[in-house]
Design goal:
With about 800 residues, the chain is mainly α. It is built from 35 helices and 10 strands.
Length: about 800
């Protein structure tokens, strides 16, 4: 028959065959057997043969498509230090148990009438766990997912890895296809368009919900809200758990930000990893040497800790201390944190590659900040961009968990900072290579210019802030700070950056900043008692000035170093520092400054236990300052001479020189040093048995202290006078000590604060109030221990023991 001819009309028997009422299943496997039979699947409108003979038709319904409703990968065997976060997630996944109407409403069966007065927070559809790469987001999600399933909260689970930070992330349509297959939808029935797939997906989930099923959908490693939006169910009877390196605030989700582990949990992770691999491995059990250091060098980041554990497992003879030493001395920790399968750097790469170019540039520039965190104004200076643009980029970097933001200051995790620093250096080197080895106007030039801008900003602003310290609390010093409190607040927030800027400036050849900034910071660091910081920055200044041949600057730096060392009770080191300063000033014929250096030298000698030598040096200094007609320095030397005489038992000379010093300071209007000199007078008078005159001197000192601008000095004078005035009642002593305590708090003087608490405790003992005494003495002992003042803390503990006996 010609195939193009019309086929004969089918017989009535064929038209009425029940086969035409079968559903069409075109992809089912069918088979025919026998010479006059055919197998078919689906609706058959007509079946015939060429000779119109009877035909037997057999219809075989297809097998149902397979489902995958228990698809969560295995959870880690042990999740260290995440108890709070696990409970936080499980609290959201736990089925809601409100009233039937509430359950119906909140599950999507009826409208939700929520108000601010509701005392029950409605259940959420989505929980999003976000955090830095390698922080353990997937491990947390899987642990919570399995725990929820074991508790019977879900009848099944779906899991999809979105590979959001890979070069080819899973598209929403692809994810929907995988989820639909897992739900048992025939692949041939899955539409091509993503929106149509989403509609079918929601319908399939609705059918499951109608059958009493409740599913947990885990979308791992999402890069954005758009990647997961189509995966959300249409009602609240199912739950979605998402992990992402980005915080996803637009999904109407419960947000859980995952931080690095605590030091204790990090050590526990290392222990469990080694024990799981080999129960006979006793490196963590037998010794704690290096364990805490190793955890710290890993930044308490789970990925880095797991890699370190793997390195130890691969090398059983290596001790933990040896691996910690390798990391501590390595030029790049990131290069060592690679076990062949996992690498911290590669993990960070995936996040960095997704940044827009301007965000990536700012990320690299932030590594140039010398300290651990940075303020908004400094970021705008560093990047040389307008404030609105900076805010937008910082917000995006925080959302990507490449930055942290606390109290309007931005910081990086230690390993992220290492990574950003490497990127900055690589970018600079690449730009220099493209410019033939010279600094180009591109990245290399940008880095150098940005660093210089930032260091100059810190120096200039510190100068403006420090002016308020020397002019008093209510000064109207020119510049950007309205008053002393605001200036001090800025200095407090930037202290670490400012001190680190000295070393940074020295390292890149900015000698001017390396020499000026320690001088600018001197008053502030002395003010708050940050003597270790002052020692560090002035030591650098000494070295830089010597290299530059700047004798005056070197002499000043040595003198300031001597003062800082003496304030830190390092008298044996302070003496040669002051001698070096005096010799340098003599070499440039600066007699006035030489006299100041000798005054400091004499004080260090006295405090070192050599009062006779101190007296001789101070007499020489006084002669120099009288020749220079410097009344301020004459008064300072006279006060020290009084202290020398007191140490040597020369009571009359001690009283006379101290009175002369106080008179000169009063004449100069220097309330701070007048109060100090009056305390010296009071000590001398007390030693000579002239108690009433000593009391009068103390009262004058305390009156002068109230006009001071330096709260640390005010506290010291109040404490000194309170101890000197032996006829004060316990309540009067407590009043004075509390005034000193308030001054200590303003000055951030923790050591003096501890001593004021000790004094208050002793006063309460004298008053008979043992409970208050114990409270204040306990706080004093704790503060002294925190400061490393062991012998002083032991003295307080001994008093406490007597009090409780």
């Amino acid at each position: 028959m010609n195939p193009w001819q019309r086929k004969p009309k089918p017989t009535p028997e064929a038209q009425n065959s029940p086969a035409d009422r079968q559903p069409l299943m075109p992809d089912a496997d069918v088979a025919a057997s026998g010479p006059r039979s055919v197998a078919a699947a689906g609706s058959i409108g007509a079946v015939t043969t060429g000779d119109y003979s009877p035909l037997a038709v057999s219809v075989y319904p297809p097998a149902p498509a397979p489902t995958a409703l228990a698809s969560l990968p295995a959870a880690p065997s042990k999740l260290s230090g995440r108890g709070t976060e696990v409970e936080q997630v499980l609290a959201v996944l736990r089925p809601h148990t409100g009233s039937p109407q509430q359950d119906a409403d909140r599950s999507g069966a009826g409208p939700i009438a929520a108000s601010a007065a509701d005392d029950v927070i409605p259940p959420v559809l989505v929980t999003s766990v976000a955090g830095l790469a390698g922080v353990g987001k997937t491990a947390l999600a899987l642990t919570c997912g399995h725990a929820a399933a074991e508790a019977g909260w879900f009848t099944g689970s779906l899991f999809v890895d979105l590979h959001g930070y890979d070069e080819r992330p899973v598209q929403p349509g692809q994810a929907l296809e995988a989820l639909l297959r897992a739900l048992g939808v025939d692949p041939a029935g899955i539409p091509a368009a993503a929106e149509e797939r989403a509609a079918l997906y929601r319908s399939a989930l609705e059918d499951r919900a109608d059958q009493g099923q409740r599913l947990l959908i885990v979308a791992d490693n999402a890069a954005s809200a758009d990647q997961v939006r189509l995966l959300l169910p249409g009602n609240r009877r199912h739950q979605v758990l998402i992990t992402s390196r980005h915080t996803l605030p637009t999904l109407n989700a419960r947000l859980v930000d995952l931080a690095v582990l605590s030091p204790e949990a990090a050590v526990a992770l290392l222990w469990h990893a080694l024990q799981r691999a080999n129960p006979a491995d006793r490196r963590v059990i037998d010794t704690t040497d290096g364990v805490e250091e190793l955890a710290g060098l890993c930044g308490y980041l789970p990925l880095a800790l797991h890699i370190s554990a793997a390195l130890l497992i691969l090398e059983p003879d290596q001790t933990i201390a040896e691996l910690a030493a390798e990391l501590a001395t390595a030029r790049s920790r990131l290069s060592l944190l690679d076990d062949g399968e996992r690498a911290v750097r590669a993990s960070f790469d995936l996040s960095y590659r997704r940044l827009p170019p301007d965000h990536a540039e700012l990320f690299r520039l932030l590594a140039l900040n010398p300290g651990p965190d940075i303020g908004l104004e400094a970021v705008t200076v560093l990047a040389a961009r307008p404030l609105p643009a900076i805010r937008t980029m910082l917000r995006a970097l925080v959302q990507a968990h490449l930055l942290d933001c606390v109290n309007k200051r931005w910081s990086m995790h230690d390993l992220v900072r290492d990574y950003a620093t490497e990127l900055a250096l690589d970018t600079q080197q690449a730009a220099a290579n493209s410019a033939g080895g010279e600094e180009a106007p591109g990245a290399a030039g940008t880095n150098a210019q940005a660093r210089s801008r930032l260091l100059e900003h810190y120096t200039a602003t510190a100068l403006a802030a420090s002016a308020h310290l020397t002019l008093g609390a209510h000064s109207s010093a020119p510049g950007e700070f309205a008053d002393q409190d605001k200036a001090l607040a800025w200095l407090d927030s930037e202290r670490v950056n400012l001190t680190a800027s000295v070393a940074a400036a020295a390292g890149i050849g900015h000698q001017d900043i390396a020499l000026r900034l320690p001088v600018i910071l001197y008053d502030y660091l002395i003010w708050h008692g940050y003597f270790d910081d002052l020692i560090a920055v002035t030591t650098i200044a000494c070295s830089i000035a010597h290299q530059a041949g700047a004798l005056a600057a070197e002499a000043g730096a040595w003198n300031n170093l001597g003062i800082a060392l003496a304030e830190a009770s390092r008298y044996e080191e302070a003496v040669p520092a002051h001698r070096r300063a005096a010799d340098l000033f003599a070499s440039i014929d600066n007699h006035n400054e030489r006299g100041k250096a000798l005054n400091g030298l004499g004080s260090a000698l006295r405090d070192w236990g050599k009062p006779a030598d101190a007296l001789q040096i101070h007499q020489e200094a006084l002669t120099i300052q009288r020749a220079c007609e410097d009344l301020q320095e004459q008064a300072a030397v006279l006060n020290n001479l009084s202290l020398d005489h007191q140490e040597l038992g020369n009571v009359a000379e001690a009283c006379a020189t101290a009175e002369e010093a106080a008179s000169l300071f009063q004449q100069l209007g220097d309330a701070t040093n007048e109060a100090k000199a009056l305390c010296t007078v009071a000590f001398a008078l007390q030693a000579s048995g002239r108690s009433e005159e000593a009391r009068a001197a103390c009262e004058r000192a305390m009156k002068a202290s109230r006009a001071m601008g330096n709260p640390r000095d005010e506290a010291a004078i109040l404490m000194t006078c309170t101890k000197l005035l032996t006829d004060l009642t316990p309540q009067q002593q407590i009043t004075y000590f509390r005034q000193a305590q308030a001054a200590c708090e303003r000055a951030n003087a923790h050591d003096l604060h501890a001593y004021t608490l000790f004094g208050i405790g002793q006063a309460y003992i004298a008053s008979g109030d043992r409970d208050q005494a114990a409270t204040h003495l306990t706080r004093a002992a704790s503060m002294l221990e925190d400061l490393g003042l062991v012998s002083e803390a032991a003295e307080v503990h001994a008093l406490l023991a007597l009090l409780r006996s």
